[in-house]
Automatic annotation (TrEMBL):
Pfam families: LacI, Peripla_BP_3. InterPro entries: HTH_LacI, LacI/GalR-like_sensor, Lambda_DNA-bd_dom_sf, Peripla_BP_I. Keywords: DNA-binding, Transcription, Transcription regulation. This is LacI family transcriptional regulator. One of its GO terms (molecular function) is DNA-binding transcription factor activity. It comes from Stella humosa. Residues 16-70 form the HTH lacI-type domain.
Length: 348
């Protein structure tokens, strides 16, 4: 039978101490501590030498003891709706890289677009000692907001503009994004539209885009029949199903606006399979500018959203709060049309 054996840990709990690493690396104990806790303050070659020495000696920094001494776990939590959508993955990757530069580690979970689940998982993270939280959207269970208030945990809402927000937020104006898209397509001569998007339930980003679409349609004196407003889960298969549903319900519109690039790709693939000329007969617009958008044929027109910037700003804000520094968040981040081959002027 395998037997447990002692593991070397830091802070005097095992065989190798922080002072041993310092002596072996030829630096002070304070420098070793900074190399683990505040790596940005240590020269890269010195930190590399310290980490190599720690590996050789089998030293592991004692997180529990360090947390007790500083009253901080140096762990930040992030709750995103799903990891199936690479839009969130891009932002999380940027967030993680940024916080690691300041000596923090990321604890990540998903809410699956469920506010009850988001609250439960936030509570579990707080119980495990996270120092702050990155959330998605501006709508949350009131119990979650109360929890963060009474525990004093800093948090930031992402993917939603900071202008006029009750809580610290970083993102873009979803309503303005839809106006940008519809103004462009109407400018190409389109008047018959369909919309394929996700559910607006517990998703204020979708709700904001739908409000923007309503603004634009009303402003241009147009209307979108209910049969052309289709809500689907975010997948290529669901996008294909949405196109078939549209085709079966009557004459096709001249333009389809999709909630994200994944749905748009499904719509595009099914339209091409049905022999539809894109963009001669039908224009298709995505949202997000995922990698796949540049590799479809024709290339997918879409909207570039500031995924990396959102992750970086969220990290900077939480670290600043924990370090007692003030930081000015931008009122909103810009979005940009990326025009490729799936949109064009209305054919005569």
């Amino acid at each position: 039978m395998a037997r447990a054996r002692p593991v070397a840990v830091g802070d005097g709990q095992g065989t190798v101490r922080l002072a041993d690493v310092a002596a072996a690396a030829g630096v002070s104990s304070a420098t070793v501590s900074r190399a683990f806790n505040l790596p940005a303050l240590v020269r890269e070659d010195v930190r590399a030498r310290i980490l190599a020495t720690a590996d050789d000696l089998g030293y592991v920094a004692h997180g529990a003891a360090r947390a007790l001494a500083s009253k901080r776990s140096r762990t930040l939590g992030a709750i995103v709706p799903t990891l199936n959508n690479t839009i969130f993955a891009r932002a999380i990757d940027a967030f993680q890289r940024r916080v690691e530069e300041r000596g923090y580690i990321l604890l990540l979970t998903t809410s699956e677009y469920d506010q009850q689940r988001e609250w439960e998982r936030a509570r579990a993270m707080v119980e495990r000692g996270v120092d702050g939280l990155m959330l998605v959207g501006g709508q949350h269970d009131p119990r979650l907001l109360h929890l963060l208030e009474v525990t004093g945990k800093p948090f930031i809402n992402t993917w939603t503009a900071n202008r006029g927000a009750e809580h610290a937020s970083v993102g873009y104006d979803s309503r303005a994004l839809s106006n940008l898209v519809f103004d462009y397509l109407v400018g190409l001569g389109h008047r018959e539209f369909a919309v394929v998007t996700g559910s607006s339930s517990h998703n204020d980003r979708v709700a904001g885009r739908l409000l923007g679409m309503a603004d634009a349609v009303r402003r241009h004196g147009l209307a979108i029949p209910p049969a052309r407003m289709i809500h689907r889960r975010y997948s290529i298969d669901e996008g294909r199903c949405a196109f078939r549903q549209l085709a079966a319900s009557g004459p096709l519109p001249t333009a389809i606006v999709c909630g994200n690039d994944i749905l748009a790709c499904g719509v595009l693939f099914e339209a091409l399979a049905a022999g539809i000329d894109v963009p001669g007969r039908l224009s298709i617009m995505g949202n997000g500018d995922l990698d796949i958008a540049a590799h479809t044929s024709p290339g997918l027109s879409t909207v570039l959203t500031p995924k990396v910037e959102i992750g970086n700003w969220a990290a900077d804000y939480l670290v600043a709060c924990l370090e007692g520094r003030e930081i000015d968040l931008p009122p909103e981040l810009p979005v940009t049309l990326v025009l490729r081959g799936t949109t064009g002027p209305l054919s005569a």
